[in-house]
Design a protein that fits this description.
heterodimer, A: about 300 residues, alpha/beta, Inosine-uridine Nucleoside N-ribohydrolase, Chain A, 9-stranded mixed β-sheet, two-stranded antiparallel ribbon, about 20% strand, B: about 325 residues, 13 helices
């Protein structure tokens, strides 16, 4: 039976690969892609998302949403993803325009129309989702489950020592989503590091597929690969969004998960966006979301390979 | 031509007075009512809005239910001490026969504003959450509204929740700051002018010749009692109806201009801090922000006369 996904994304490099994975997976139908500012300004992320759809020969509608965080000004990650966010591919010019409707409206409309049937995968700041949940709190019950690429479960961040970029961008939005009652799995950026990153050999293997998708997946990450090595001592190509997508495609890729009280630091700059997981249940607060602790790394890579071959 | 408004409300005794004031005034065309938490929980606000419209014979007007909590803070308790458990001073209205519009309030606002560009004034008299959410859904409404005329804040006087904060702003200071700084024309009717217009028992008694007036008299009992107990005042402040008075006749008010920022944390949370000077040695949080029209003085006798005229005159569909 076909599973239905909606992907919310600030499309740059690794988002693009995650989009390709979902669009290529046999029993997954991506109903819509909603775009948010984040890695890139909204209109650049939107073009990147639409181009990624076209690489797969699909016509999935792409809706543009929030251009800045709920309460803060926008900050982008061109220092990590390059000027247009797609590595050596530069500025992309997709054939099709974005759909006319606003992403937040569209999220509410689609989840209302099919309660309990659509999986949400978020790859960027949670602004669109938080706006939708504030406008329509019942959406929390309508989402089948939500896989969130975001945060760092009680470990080091990637944009500050405390925080991962997506959550750091809009911590107030993340807090709304985490406490919304929606069934969530938080997949922190730590799951794309070390052995989960693609080695030179693995990248060469992908290159050997010689498909448009394989070249696209590597080329759009060329800047991020260098930046990861330079800034974050990466073992290879780190792909946080594709890891999250692999889990959404096959939940067993997450081999250890548990439910905890998780909150987001919003009050000061030092800890802005920190995802504080009550791992030992010391607060006594009721658990609100699931946290991913371990993944099956070989299996995540097999899923990736399958979608690029 | 009548001014189109969207009335965003948390009814609320003075909300009900303001809604009837608007419905009974030919200068104003209410194109929709949107509801929010505040004086009451949002669901009750929606029920009350529907019931009030039904009472006024205007069930043709759409009601869209809005936010149930602030953008960032938790929702504090509704103001049952001010407005009663049912929000209308324990005066019961029949359960409404009509249902709300299926759209969330923010969506309703966006749709209406985009449909009638340049024609609609947003008239919020509760926390500004729906208005801020509408801005997030569609930033272009900033250029497409005719303006925002709101009840909230206190520019030159103390608040009414605490010395810093007026209740509507205090409930959602983050939303309020977004609304004040969005760049659209905002006119603020704060406690500066709403507390200066007072309706006493004799005034309410004078309204009883009409059906609307009789209802307002009934709900004012609870409201008067609150003002007696907490403010030691033998009259009610005229908060939400002030927005409608301004929309009918802006010459009732003196308006001065300057940017307003809202304090969003600490002991002064909810304070509407108004830059009345504009000249500072260094740039600050007010620098470059749009000027807000702040009503600083009011011709109170004329406001009272106008409200009386409209409520007693009752230009509404026959029951």
């Amino acid at each position: 039976m076909t599973r239905h996904f909606i992907i919310d994304t600030d499309t740059a490099s690794d988002d693009a690969v995650a989009i390709v994975m979902a669009l290529q997976w046999p029993d997954v139908e991506v109903d819509a892609i909603t775009v948010v500012y984040g890695n890139m300004p909204l209109e650049v992320a939107s073009a990147n998302a639409r181009y990624s759809v076209e690489v797969c020969g699909k016509e999935t509608p792409v809706y543009e949403g929030c251009a800045k965080p709920l309460l803060r000004s926008a900050a982008y990650a061109d220092w990590f993803h390059g000027p247009y966010g797609m590595g050596k591919l530069g500025q992309l010019r997709p054939q099709r325009p974005a759909a006319g409707q606003n992403a937040v409206e569209e999220l509410i409309r689609r989840f209302r129309a099919a309660p309990g049937e659509i999986t949400l995968v978020t790859l960027g700041p949670l602004t669109n989702i938080a706006a939708a949940l504030t406008v329509e709190p019942r959406m929390a019950e309508w989402v089948k489950e939500c896989y969130i690429m975001g945060g760092a479960a009680n470990c080091v961040g990637n944009v500050t020592p405390a925080a991962e970029f997506n959550i750091w961008c809009d911590p107030e939005a993340a807090r709304i989503v985490f406490h919304s009652g929606m069934k969530c799995l938080m997949v922190g950026w730590e799951h794309c590091r070390f052995d989960a990153a693609l080695s030179d050999e693995e990248m060469a293997y992908i290159r050997s597929f010689d498909t448009e998708r394989a070249h696209f997946a590597l080329d759009c990450n060329s800047f991020a690969l260098d930046a990861g090595r330079r800034i974050q001592a990466a073992a290879g190509l780190m792909l946080p969004d594709p890891v999250t997508m692999a889990i959404a495609i096959e939940p067993g890729v997450c081999t250890r998960r548990s439910r905890h009280y998780v909150d987001v630091a919003c009050a000061d700059e030092l800890t802005r966006g920190m995802t504080v997981v009550d791992e030992l249940h010391v607060t006594g607060n009721a658990p609100n979301i699931d946290v991913c602790w371990e993944i099956d790394k070989p299996r995540w890579k097999e899923i990736l390979y399958q979608t690029l071959q | 031509m009548a001014q189109k408004i969207i009335f965003d409300t948390d009814p609320g005794i003075d909300d009900a007075m303001a809604l009837f004031f608007a419905l009974a005034s030919p200068e104003i065309e209410v194109v929709g009512v949107t509801t929010v938490f505040g004086n009451v929980h949002t669901e009750l606000a929606t029920r009350n809005a529907l019931a009030l419209l039904e009472f006024a014979g205007r069930s043709d007007l759409p009601v869209a239910q809005g936010a149930v909590r602030p953008l960032h803070l938790p929702f504090e308790e509704p103001a049952t001490l001010v407005h009663g458990q049912n929000g209308l001073g324990e005066v019961a209205l029949p359960a409404p026969k009509t249902s709300p519009d299926p759209r969330p309030a923010a969506q309703f606002i966006v749709d209406a504003v985009m449909r009638f560009p340049g024609e609609i004034i947003l008239a919020p008299v509760g926390p500004l959450t729906n208005i801020a959410l509408a801005l997030m859904l569609e930033p272009r409404i900033v250029e497409r509204v005719a303006g925002v005329v709101l009840m909230g804040g206190a520019a030159t006087v103390n608040g009414n929740v605490n010395p810093a904060a007026e209740a509507n702003i205090w409930h959602d200071p983050h939303a309020a700051d977004l609304v004040f700084t969005a760049g659209w024309p905002v006119t603020m009717l704060g406690l500066d002018v709403t507390m200066a217009v007072q309706m006493d028992d004799a005034y309410f008694a004078g309204l009883r010749t009409s059906r609307l007036g009789e209802f307002i008299h009934a709900i004012s009992r609870f409201y008067l009692e609150f003002h007696r107990q907490v403010h030691g005042l033998d009259a009610c402040h005229t908060h939400d109806p002030s927005v409608i008075a301004y929309l009918i006749d802006p010459t009732l008010y003196t308006v001065e201009y300057g940017p307003i920022r809202v304090v969003t944390e600490g002991i002064a949370m909810g304070l509407t801090l108004w830059d009345r000077c504009g000249k500072w040695l260094r740039p600050n949080a007010w620098t470059g922000r749009p000027a807000v029209g702040v009503c600083t003085r009011v011709d109170a006798p004329r406001v009272l006369a106008l409200f009386h005229e409209r409520i007693v005159g009752e230009r509404l569909p026959a029951q």
